[in-house]
Each structure stands twice: as C-alpha cells, then as structure tokens.
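User: Run a structure prediction on this.
Assistant: Running it now.
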Amino acid sequence: MDFKLNLAQKRQSNEERFKKIVPVKHGLTVLTTVLFVAGENAGAGILALPYTLNGTGWLGVPLMIMICIDATISATLIGKCWIILEERWPEYRVQCRNPYPEIGKMAFGKKMGSLVTWLVQIASIGSAVVMLLVCSQLVSDLIDRSHTLSYGVWIVLIAVVICPLMWLGTPVEFWGAAALALGTSTIAVILLLIDMVKDLKALETSPQVSAPTATSISLAFGTFMFAYGGTAPFPTYQNDMKEKDKWPQAVIMGFIILFVLFTPFAIIGYLAYGSSVSNNIIHSVRPGLKRDIVTILMAGHLFFAFLLMINPSVQDIENKIKAQRTFNWKRVAVRITMLLVCVFIGESIPRFGKVMDLLGGSIMTCLAYIFPPSFFIALSSKTSPLWPDRRISFWARCYYYKIILMGIIGGICATTSAIYAIVSPDAFVSPCYIDFDCTYESRSSLTIGTNLSSNIFNISSPLTIINQ
C-alpha cells in the first residue's frame, strides 16, 4: 500500500514539474504557429494541382481529401510524440534545436535518430535549393526578360539578398516571414482563381479532359502527398510554441487553410482548361499585368519560404557545435556556409527537378507520412509506472497503420517515376560555373512546367519551373 502511494506521489510530482517547466515564455502563439504551418506548405506547388487533377479525373478529389486528412493526423502525431518526450524525460523540457531526430532516437534508438538527422538535413537543404532556383528564375524572367545576366548570376544575387535574413535565430524571431509567405501565395491564388472563373464562364462547351491511366494516377498520388507533406520542420515550430500542447489546434487550423486554398483551385482549373491545362497554371491564364503580379507574389513566397525550410538544418548544426542561441559569429558562419552550400548545389545542377523527385519520393514520404505514426505507436507502447498512460485504441491504431501503408505506396510510386526520369539522356545540364550561359530550360525549347517534383520537398512544394 505504501509502495503504491509513494508511486502515485512520484507520478503526481512528475506531472506537476512537467507543467511548470514546459511553457516557453517568449514563444510562438497558436496563431503565429498556424502561419508557419500554412505558410510553409502553401507554396508554388499549388500551381500544378489542376494539371494533376486532369490526370486523375474526379477520382482525384476524394484522393486529395484523404491525403489532406492523413497529413493532418500525421502532423498532430509528431507533435504528440514530443509531448511524450517531455512527459517522460526531464532533459527535453527545455527548447531543443533538433526535436525530430530526438523523437526518432527515443522511439527506435540512436540509429533511427541519426537516420532522421540525415533525412531532415537533406530535406531542408534540398527544398531550400529548389526554392532558391525557382525564385531566381522568376525574378530573372520579370526583371531581365532579355536575359542580359545569366541564370547563374541571378542565383547568386538572390542569395545575397537572402543572406542577412538567415541570421535570425529560431522561428520566433522571423514569424513575419511565415506571414508573408502565406500572404503572398494566398493573394496569388485568389488572383488566379478570378481569372480561371472568368475563363470558365466564357466557355461555350466543356473542354476535353484526359483519360486517367495507372501512370497518371500514381504520379498524382505522389503529387497530392507532397503538396501536404511539409512535416519535417514541424517539431521545430512546436518547440518554439508558448504552449506546446496546443500544437494540434495550430495544425488543424493550418491544414484547413491549405484545404480551402488547394481544393477549389484544383477543381476550377480542371473545369476551365481540361486537358489543355499547363503544368504551371500561370501559363494557362491570359498574359498581362495580373499574371506578372502573380509571378511576383510567388517569387516572394519562395523567398520567404526559403528561410522557413533551411532553419531546421542550421539549428541542428548549431546544436552540434554548441553555438549559443544569441546572435554570434558562430551563427553567422554556419548560416553563410549553408547558404553557400545551397548556391553551389544550385549552380552545379541548375535543372534540379529530377534529383528532387528521387530524394523527395523517399525522404519526404518518410518524414511526413511514415515516421510520425510509427514513432507515436512505438513511444505509446513503452510503459513505466512513473509515466502517464498512453494507450491507442484499436481503430486508431488501424488508421495509423493505413497512413504508413499509403505513405509506402506513394513513396514507391514517386521514387520509381523519378528513377525513370533520371536515366533519360537530358536529365542533367552543365554546371553554371562551366557553362556561363546556363539556363533553367533545355537548349532546344523553353519548357516551363511542373510534374511530381513540383511538390517534392514541400512542404512548401516549390514549383520546379526548372526544366525537368
């Protein structure tokens, strides 16, 4: 009896200590966290959704809804995993720079933690590179339409502008970037919707649509998954919240915003243009001032989304070299170095889309769909008399396994299609530091389009206008 009483007292003491330590004094509110969740994901990949829906027909609508629901649940689960860590191990009750790898380590051991570290690094750097490339291309087309400066020069110029903003520390210090990322993409979507509705009303007959095939449906499956798959930086955002247990609220609100933006956009674009829709919906609407404004807004989104995506990577490196959280020379050195790495990769592979297909098909599927439910199930299965009970109902467990299975299927489809694309003869071009007249399109024709790779690392789903 005394033993049970003592055990109950220890558990109560543990829970009381948890409540006192966890809150972050100057952290993100639920509203600002919503901006990060939605702003990171509401990227240029939305421009490929009407084209993707044309490949599936109306079957794509319930498929897109299902993937949105699964992505929302996965995002809430990764947040619950961190709460479990704080409940059980006091050392996690302070802000952590590499929360996702720590979750993996406590769920499946040190090897899993190391694997997650590498995947997060590759995902963050890879997506940041694509954003840098696409932003450079958009700015180049707007400002330098005669292409006086080469594409490689524009990559460097955009990086120089981004550099000072990278010195901001954690998401708490640059929540404005998340607001601007969401705001610019939302306005762009509204402007495009207005033009698409006008074109739809002007139709005398319904446009022809493509007949769905197994290939087009599998590619669309991967595209929809990556459009909602910006989970990799989420634990970092949660770690900077004032009240981390309110993470599910922020996730649900953020994904509702994404659903409201994505679904009508895809459907109206599909109805208005049918099989004639461009891979980049911007090129299906009439040219003019409004289209230029949309291009500017999407370039702005990618500029600010770059800061959101690269942050988990630099924070993890700063944690490993024990850099202080205040502004200091180590932070500046790390972040300039990371920016130079992104520039070098971009200059080396200016048409980065096919490599992104391969990396994203495997990496982002793991981080966004397979790992969150797997880690939550593993952590909930571990027990101790001092820990709060974490039991999963039978039906919830079945649904989590369904998410894992769908993630595996989607990852295999995306990776397989990427491998086929990579082995094609025109997969790569010369680096910009060898070919000083390098471009983002092929030499034979100007191909501005998007396929599966437009959604590979986004999270923000950066539109790979870089020729595939």
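The first helix runs from residue 2 to 21.
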